[in-house]
Write a structure and sequence with these properties.
Layout: E1 2-9, E2 12-19, H1 24-31, E3 50-53, E4 56-59, E5 72-74, H2 76-79, H3 87-94, H4 104-119, H5 138-144, H6 155-165
Length: about 170
């Protein structure tokens, strides 16, 4: 059974017809040609397909496209405003926080979402004070980014980039 959906992807309205079983990742990559989110594990375990979905980070391989009709999707490509890289993207470049680059778009989207969550005061599992502001220690950053795996092991540089991107 098919359904027609509309998405705003990286600031552009997109309308498409999808099978009810189509994941948001497959709709983005296969139907709309948006290749920034990557298909890694296809089980929601690696984070390479992470995007900002209505402003919150989400893995798209587990999300059905029809369930997000009308949603706003921001990929790593859509974070750059007016051709200028997002501060987190700049920090990833400055800290060499990638090697092969496969996980980088998901890492960047997750970092932007994690920083927004911290600014909003949302605690993580390692946040010591649940009532105060969130201090972005390395442990806090590692916990918030733990859903995004890097096969190359660039974690030290990723933490440094997220710390720098928070400024």
């Amino acid at each position: 059974m098919d359904g027609e959906i509309e998405l705003e992807v990286d600031g552009r309205a997109r309308r498409l017809r999808v099978d009810n079983r189509t994941t948001l990742l497959d709709a983005l990559r296969e139907r709309l040609g948006v290749t920034s989110p990557k298909k890694g594990c296809d089980h929601g375990q690696c984070g390479s397909c992470t995007v900002l979905l209505d402003g919150r980070r989400a893995v798209t391989c587990l999300a059905l496209a029809v369930a997000h009709d009308g949603a706003t999707v921001t990929t790593a490509d859509g974070l750059a405003a007016g051709g200028e890289p997002h501060p987190v993207q700049e920090a990833f470049l400055e800290h060499d926080a990638f090697q092969c680059g496969f996980c980088t778009p998901g890492q960047v989207c997750s970092a932007v979402g994690a920083l927004a969550e911290a600014r909003a005061g949302h605690p993580s599992h390692v946040t010591p004070d649940l009532t105060g502001p969130v201090e972005l220690s390395d442990a806090e950053i590692r916990e918030r980014m733990s859903g995004n795996l890097c096969r190359c092991g660039a974690y030290v540089n990723i933490v440094a980039a997220v710390r720098d991107g928070a400024r």
